[in-house]
TrEMBL record:
The keyword Transmembrane applies. GO terms for molecular function: sugar transmembrane transporter activity. Pfam families: MtN3_slv. Belongs to the SWEET sugar transporter family. GO terms for cellular component: Golgi membrane; plasma membrane. Its main location: membrane. Keywords: Cell membrane, Golgi apparatus, Membrane, Repeat, Sugar transport, Transmembrane, Transmembrane helix, Transport. This is Sugar transporter SWEET1. InterPro entries: SWEET, SWEET_rpt. The chain crosses the membrane at residues 40-63, 75-93, 99-121, 133-153, 159-179. The keyword Thylakoid does not apply. It is found in: Cell membrane; Golgi apparatus membrane. It is a multi-pass membrane protein.
Amino acid sequence: SDLRQMLATKSVENIQFLPFLTTDVNNLSWLGYGCLKQDWTLITVNTIGAALQTLYILAYLYYSPAKRPVLLQSLVLLAVLATGYGYFTLLVADARTRLVRLGLFCSVFTISMYLSPLADLAKILRSKSTRCLSFPLTVTTFLASTSWTLYGLQLRDPYITVPNVPGIVTSVVRFWLFWRYPPGQDKPYRPLHA
């Protein structure tokens, strides 16, 4: 829906960039973990996810009036990803150790991905407006984090299970924010004091 909104309005107004970026890095990291573990569920889902997130980032960049900050954030996270890839492939020789360390790396990125939409929490509470949050993204995050938590429990893989629990919690917080401050109640103006 965010992509549709960008294409329809030719604008990125009220659409946050950081969730797209962290989700793309997250997908690419989990893709590496899935390849090491030879888990075709992780490989398939994260290949599709990375392709879609890259498309969203390119659309955001195209429609963004401030391209420099978007490019800078993208380059910083790509540098972190490239450094991580170099570390895991060149410096960690033991396959088991590599899997454990990459699992921890992926867990940190997953948690940051799930926490990134709450970066504007103070602004939302001050303005009493959820305009900067995406309801469809909240629903998708809740469903995805719940699914991955259950999948991780089934595999007994703490690197999949543990970082997805915050996704459930932050989704519930965002659902509460949408309930508390419904999008229809937003005021496009500031009342003047007499």
